[in-house]
Structure formats: C-alpha cells, structure tokens
From TrEMBL:
This is Arsenate reductase. Belongs to the ArsC family. The lineage of its organism: Bacteria, Bacillati, Actinomycetota, Actinomycetes, Kitasatosporales. PANTHER family: ARSENATE REDUCTASE. Gene3D superfamilies: Glutaredoxin.
Length: 123
C-alpha cells in the first residue's frame, strides 16, 4: 500500500473530524469508505500487524452485529483470532474507526485529535 490511507464511515463524527484535521495539516491521503470497499481478511491481518493489535482490540462490541454474534462471549486468544478476523471482514461495521495507515508502515486508530496529528506527521 502506498501513501496514507484512512478508513472511514462518513456518518461517523470522529471520521469527519479526522478528515478535517488531516486537511488542516496538509496531509496527502486517500479515503477508504470501508463499509462500501470492505477490507478482506488479508487486509485486516495486515492492518492489525501494522497496528500491533489483535482483532478484538479494534472491534466495536456495542454494535448490533456484535450482540447477534455473541462477540462478548468469544475467547480472545490465538485459537479464536481467525474467527474474529472473519467476523470483521463479514461485518465491517464492527471495525473501529477511523484507522489511518501511515506512509512509514505504521497504523493507528485515530479516535483523538492527537492521534490524527501523529499520523499526519509520519508522512
């Protein structure tokens, strides 16, 4: 992946705020509306590696789909890791947002202004 990319849901206020901050910082980025352009399991694995997080760390457990799947009851270990990743790929609303992949190979969940500025500085 080349350049900075931000995974957003346009209906999310944190995502809109992140875009405003990236613009103010003069960042060069691409927008991925991940509910329309759904990341596959391989992309989710790659982002998790860049984030240095596990799939349950970026799962929105308050979403209705999480309740329907019973995610709060799922184990959080190596044996269930693939199951979590499949759930995120199948139900992208479960993915925490916004996620920024930076030019330097890192990524972060950009829910705060500080995180967005940090990502913008990594160009």
């Amino acid at each position: 992946m080349r350049g900075m990319e931000i995974w957003i849901n346009p209906a999310c206020s944190k995502c809109r705020s992140a875009l405003t901050l990236l613009d103010a910082e003069g960042a060069d980025y691409t927008v991925r509306r991940y509910l329309e352009d759904v990341p596959d399991e391989g992309e989710i694995r790659a982002v998790l590696e860049r984030l240095d997080l596990e799939p349950w760390d970026i799962t929105r457990t308050q979403e209705p789909a999480a309740g329907e799947l019973g995610l709060k009851e799922w184990a959080r270990d190596a044996d269930t890791r693939d199951r979590w990743i499949t759930a995120l790929a199948t139900h992208p609303r479960l993915i925490q947002r916004p996620i920024i992949t930076a030019d330097d190979g890192t990524a972060l969940v950009a829910r705060t202004d500080e995180a967005v500025r940090d990502a913008a500085s990594r160009r």
